[in-house]
Amino acid sequence: MVRLNDDVPAQPEGDAVDEDWITGWAEADGVRVPLPRGWAPVGPDAGVPVVGAQVALHATPVASDADGTPFAPTIVVTFVDAHPDASAAAFGAQALAAAVEVCGAATGDGRVLGYEVWLPPAQPDRVDAGRRLSFAHRREAATLAVTQVVRVVDRPAGRGVLTVTATVPALHRLTHAADVDRVAAAVEVRADRPAGPPAATPPAPPTVAVTPTVEVEDVRALVPRQPFTTAGPRVARAAFEEFLRRRKVGPRRAGHADLLAAGLVDADGRPTPDGTAVRELLRTRSAHLRLESARGPVPLSLDVSHRGGRALVVATAGPADVPVPGGAVAAPEVLGEATRVRLDWVDASHLPVVLAAWSGLEPRWVAAATAAPSEEDLLRRVDDPDAPHPPDADEGLRRAWAGDWYLWTMRLAGQPVGRVVVRAGDGGSWLLTGASGLGEPAARQWVPAALAQDLDRFTLALVLA
């Protein structure tokens, strides 16, 4: 069996599906949907807008942003009859294109986080059985996280495509992470449901070979580049540091013009209301998260200061946005990225998107490694793009070896454990565990969806600190 994007949250498997989580069933149009604990069918008086679903579920509304705006998590289930040649790859690619449109990838309002094979219990070896997509996007002040499973269903009346979509406030994604998988695995389409007109089959997506025998849709072609962007001003790092040190940065100071243009000081060098707010949050923050990386001699960083549901982000460019052509850092424009920082105020619910964008998290196919490379080999490749791959490297690692590699770290102030991650081109990411010689792997492979969940965990730790 080819294992693709294997390091994702556990899915129910065959007879091991635990039915204790099912509290009842909702049914419409021959589609029977289990009710996970805490979920109920959307009725006409629920006040939850849902369009185009056979069955829709909702959970108790929760706060979606720093102002406590309520939002009811939803799970929407749709089933359409399809042509015999319908595939999860084609319908998954169609869903992926829709997600790109919703996210506004070039604006930073959202981000496609993961796209992987979804394996239903009855078809554990069929790569084309299903797809799972995860993305996040802004809705007014709040950021919502969406997980969508697209699944091919074969029944006596013919083939159909089942889509299960969960939408929750971003900071509650981990709470409901298992629900969409459970629902997608257990939902039933009655055998006696009459077949309707088949839905149009989407165009076949471009494909890429991940092994000599397996081709899957090419997410590079389907998802445009998603750069790290901010809505706030840019300012010279030295000027910003001077602004934090001095009560006033007058017109004669070197950084005054930059700070004035950024709206942090007035013409006399005194802090503006915006500048005062920046100083105040940095002085009174309840938690601080820092990410660091480097591209050649260029140091890069992102700092998040949080208080009361709102966060100030102070960051250089992210490592994925600093080109290193031919293994040598391009100067001087690239070096300039380390000398300027971007400032942005964001709702805490948007932080998982910010962290994903800065660290370069993208949906990619990752073939599970047959053996973990050593920490020494990974670090050697980060330091030297021309370093040879280990002689026992499997095909997936050999393919990834020629890509763009970098290392980044993440630490929450006051916490003993952080993250050291090697981004291995299209080979996903490797978490350096520090366990070398302790009987545990020194590096653990992460696929995009697993890394996205870890960023969620760090964001929650920041918000709750």
What does this structure look like?
The chain has helices at residues 88-103, 177-186, 219-222, 237-245, 256-261, 273-284, 333-337, 351-359, 375-383, 395-401, 448-464, and strands spanning 22-28, 31-36, 39-41, 55-59, 62-63, 70-71, 74-81, 110-117, 130-139, 142-155, 158-169, 188-189, 207-211, 214-217, 234-236, 287-295, 298-307, 310-315, 340-347, 405-412, 419-424, 429-432, 443-446. With 465 residues, it is α+β, with helices and mostly antiparallel strands. Among the domains are: 14-222, Protein Transport Mog1p, Chain A (3-Layer(aba) Sandwich); 367-446, no CATH class. Helix 8 crosses helix 11.
Short description:
Helices cover 22% and strands 31% of the residues.
**Mean of pLDDT:** 85
Q: What percentage of amino acids are in beta strands? A: 25-35%
Number of strands: 23
Q: Total helix count?
A: 11
Terminal residue distance = 43 Å
CATH class of one domain: Alpha Beta
The third-level CATH topology of one domain is Protein Transport Mog1p, Chain A
> Which term fits the overall shape?
globular
Using only C-alpha atoms, the radius of gyration works out to: 24 Å
**Would you identify the CATH H-level superfamily of one domain?**
Mog1/PsbP, alpha/beta/alpha sandwich
**Proportion of residues in helical segments:** 10-25%
* Biggest sheet descriptor: 9 strands, antiparallel
Derived from helix and strand composition plus strand pairing, the structural class reads alpha+beta
Strand ordering within the main sheet:
15-19-18-17-16-20-21-22-23
